[in-house]
Amino acid sequence: MSENTQPATLFGLDDEETEDVLRTLSNTALIRAVVVASLGLAGSVAGREFGADWLDPFLDTYALAVVPVLGWWIHKRLNQDGK
Fold first, then answer.
1. Nearest CA to 65 among 33, 40, 35, 31?
2. CA-to-CA distance for 41 and 30, rounded, in angstroms?
3. DSSP letter string over 28-65?
4. What is the DSSP letter of 3?
5. Separation CA 68–CA 64 (nearest Å)
6. For the segment 10-65, what is each residue's pLDDT rounded down to a tens digit?
7. Cα-trace Rg, the chain
8. In whole angstroms, how far apart are CA 3 and each of 6, 14, 55, 73?
């Protein structure tokens, strides 16, 4: 039996579609991935397990707060530039 040496695609997506998925990945998902990976790395270095029970409520708050905060910041910047 010969080995399959063809590169596997991400869920049947070609390179352009994979780039589109990565480009549209939400900030919340990216933050969650980085935090979970960091907790896993820190846990393996420390030799213990760190819980991430606090992560989902934190990310929910972040996702709800970021829109009005950015809206306020953009509004403030536009008003400063118009003066």
1. 31
2. 16
3. HHHHHHHHHHHHHHHHHHHTS----TTHHHHHHHHHHH
4. P
5. 8
6. 555 566 666 666 666 667 777 788 888 888 899 889 988 888 788 888 888 888 88
7. 20
8. 9, 22, 42, 56
Counting every residue, how long is the chain?
83
- Separation between Cα atoms, residue 68 and residue 37, nearest integer Å: 28
- What does the DSSP 8-state code read for residue 77? H
Amino acid at 35: V
- The DSSP symbol for 5 reads -
